[in-house]
Request: fold
Amino acid sequence: MGSISHNQVTVSICFKIILYVLVFIISHVDGQNASQQLSITFIADAITKGAVCLDGTPGAYYFSKGFGDGINSWMIFLPGGAWCATNEGCLNKSSTDLGSNKNPPPLPLGTFQSTNKTINPDFYNWNIVQIRYCDGASFMADVEAVNPETNLHLRGRRIFTSVIEELKSTQGMSNAENALLIGNSAGGLATILNCDRFHSFLPGACRVKCISDSGFFIRAEHLRGAQDNAIDNFRKVVLFHISKYVAPNSPNEVGWNNCTTEFSKLSSCTENQHHIIMGNPNS
Ligand SMILES: *[C@@H]1O[C@H](CO)[C@@H](O)[C@H](O)[C@H]1NC(C)=O
Ligand SMILES: *[C@@H]1O[C@H](CO)[C@@H](O)[C@H](O)[C@H]1NC(C)=O
Ligand SMILES: *[C@@H]1O[C@H](CO)[C@@H](O)[C@H](O)[C@H]1NC(C)=O
Reply:
């Protein structure tokens, strides 16, 4: 009897140890996954709002909720991914992750998005958002008309606006005390273009900063002496995403040509045209 009882105790202890080890391994693996990847949130009613990618699929973002004393601090990240400036280029892009949210992959987190305090001591408990870049034009365009031949949508600006509005109304961003808008490359340009608007969305008490990483495309000769083509690139991007679709059948098209046929002529747009191109900063 005594021996059976002893065996039972041994088996019971062994079982418990195995169980603890399993639970530890499973939770450790789960915990690692949770801290290394973020899943996607699609903008609510994105199609109705017109907040869509090049191919018309809904705009989306990755979100990790803040905690502790980071609950009212926000980091919004705008990723890079170049631009497109022709029907062919934008159609090519619209069949990739940079132009469509058909199959958005989970997001592997970078250092400044980690929830591990050792790795990311300044921001580990902040609200972390990464907006999916799928409009091909640095979240710049907001064109109502859809080209019926290509079905291309040029609406990145609406994606940015809708994400910020949704975070404010559903995730407490309207209580933000600190907010950082960060982007790199095409997202770095988007950060420059949207910094003032971002600020205008947030309450007066909020401390707002913008960081553009590799987003300032200067007009200069390359180190190896090659001619700079940034101006030419941006002329094409701006013309494709804005002017071609601004009031396409308007009797005033000639007036638009005056200000949008060349990038350098943007300065000769009328006040109203500037208003349409730049959008209303408070909207
Ligand atoms: C679009 O994709 C095709 C096929 O891969 C390629 O040949 C073409 O150069 C691409 N066009 C642009 C503008 O990227
Ligand atoms: C946080 O990162 C440190 C350094 O890489 C690591 O030793 C530690 O296990 C991590 N903590 C968690 C909870 O993952
Ligand atoms: C366009 O520019 C030309 C030449 O500068 C000018 O004569 C014309 O009045 C402009 N048209 C409009 C609609 O602004």
Summary: The chain is about 35% helix and 15% strand.
